[in-house]
Amino acid sequence: MTIPRFVGRPDWYTTFNPETLAATGTALRWGVIATGGIARTVTGDLALLEDSILQAVSSRGESSAAGFATDFGFASYYYDGGPDGSSASGYLQLMADPEVDVVYIATPHGQHFDVAKAALEHGKHVLCEKALTITAAETRTLIELAQAKGLFMMEAVWARFVPGYQRALEIIASGEIGEVKWVRADLGFVAPKDESLRIWAPDNGGGALLDLSVYPLLWAWGTLGKPDKVAATGELTSFGVDAQNTMTLSYANGAQAQLISYLSSQGPSRVTVSGTLGYLETVDSLNNPGEIFISAPNGEKRTETFDYPGRGYTYQLREVTRCIQAGLTESTTMPLADSLAIMELFDETRRQIGVSYWNDTRTDL
Questions:
Q1: Do residues 208 and 236 make contact, with C-beta atoms less than 8 angstroms apart?
Q2: What are phi and psi of 361, to 5 degrees?
Q3: β-pairing, 229-236 with 180-188?
Q4: Which of 139, 194, 213, 266 is 20 to 30 Å from 152 by CA-CA measure?
Q5: For the whole model, what pTM was predicted?
Q6: How do residues 288-340 score in pLDDT, each as one tens digit?
Q7: ∠310-313-316 over CA atoms, to 5°?
Q8: Assign residue 107 a region: left if phi > 0, alpha if psi is -120 to 50, beta otherwise?
Q9: Which residues are CB-contacts of 144 (< 8 A; sequence separation ≥ 6)?
Q10: Segment 195-243, tens digit of pLDDT
Q11: Do 246 and 230 meet the contact criterion of CB atoms below 8 Å apart?
């Protein structure tokens, strides 16, 4: 039985606990844009790579930029206005720094397009947090610019690279659980409903869909591929973003996936992939499973476990580093075509559940 696989395995994955820290080529000089929680987490893992140089960081305020630089040992830092009273934002000052090779963008979603576009225009390679942009049109514009400039760009869907996910895809592709007939995945938590918070703010692309849904979706995408149809429902807040959404994906072969993302309740945050011969489940984490459970057709039941350095982000950082060192402009595991197709799916989901952002009507693309 041949079972297709829709998310590739990186070429350097020789085992399911691959080496990610050892240098694979010339060191890259990194710039980090924003200093929030995810920036701190990813930068902590970036510092573990032997061929990474923490070159520069930018933030809106001087104290946050300086504090971040001190905490992680960056060579320089930038902030809005700068020490010379410049009117330039901190991130534009960083992008003008000739010592920076590649930028990691950790700003809120609503700023991704403008910041990534500026980075590409300044000749910098880009790793940008998910969601890459707010709309498919914005994503398409960035892809065209990156390709025209011959620069590497990748959406930071780190969960595609972690050992548990990659191993799960290998098991499924081997045919051990048979033909996949359905996938069920959920992810979420209770977030205080305050429109000023990044996760809710409409101007930042707030809501469960753009913040969380990429993770349940990656399990359907990796096992069943791009869906033929989506039917979506959602619960909206009084300020117009989704507190919860459900996407039911349908495929021409009859397979289905049900994906739920939520910011207003507690849930297991778990995946089940059901096949004609058995099934597979995540045990402890949907986006970085340290354990996966397999129920095979012969009655065998087993759990496989995985270790990883740092917080689990070194895998995507190794992929970015190796791609740039090799002169590649995109990753085969997180290709730009997938980023665009997923944003198109999210656009349609938002249309069905009634969520819109100002980006939907922008005319400057």
A1: no
A2: -115, 10
A3: unpaired
A4: 213
A5: 0.97
A6: 999 999 998 888 899 999 999 999 999 999 999 999 999 999 999 999 999 99
A7: 140
A8: beta
A9: none
A10: 999 999 999 999 999 999 999 999 999 999 999 999 999 999 999 999 9
A11: no
Q: Which two tokens stand for residue 118?
A: 């500026």
Q: Scan for tokens 């359907």, then name that residue.
A: 220
Phi–psi pair at 17, nearest 5 degrees: -135, 65
Residue where the block lists tokens 């944003």: 343
Using only C-alpha atoms, what is the Rg of the chain?
A: 20
Give the pLDDT score at 82.
84
The C-alpha atoms of residue 183 and residue 162 are separated, in whole angstroms, by 19
